[in-house]
Amino acid sequence: IILTAEDPRRERVADINSEIMKGILDTQKVHEIEDREEAIRYAISIAQPDDTVIITGKGHERSMNMGNGEVDWSDQAAVKRYI
């Protein structure tokens, strides 16, 4: 599991991830990477043959809000950069 930013707006990504971690039973295999692009890059880089990488949260959306309004963002474009 890689926890990352997904429209945190004015909340701290670390605080959101901390709340999510409370519901994960085995946290030893959890990575927290606040930068979404870096998280996607990392997920793809550690994937082995026959692995499945599932990126949730943004899907078809074309922007992300990090607290200063919407900025251009595409999970699909990020994946294409690293595959």
Element pattern in H and E = EHEHEEH
Number of helices: 3
Q: Which regions are unreliable across 5 or more consecutive residues at pLDDT < 50?
A: none
N/C terminus separation:
19 Å
Instruction: Give the % helix.
Output: 25-40%
Q: Using only CA atoms, what is the Rg?
A: 13 Å
Beta percentage is 5-15%
Largest sheet: 2 strands, parallel
Structural class: alpha+beta
Total number of β-strand segments?
4
Spatial ordering of strands, largest sheet:
1-2
Give the rounded overall mean pLDDT. Answer: 96
* Oligomer class: single chain
Name the overall outline.
Answer: flat
Explain what this protein looks like in three dimensions.
The structure is a single chain. This protein is of the alpha+beta class and 83 residues long. It is 34% helix and 12% strand. The strands form two sheets. It has a two-stranded parallel ribbon with strand order 1-2. The protein has a two-stranded antiparallel sheet with strand order 3-4. The protein is flat, with a radius of gyration of 13 Å. The chain starts with a strand and ends with a helix. The mean pLDDT is 96.
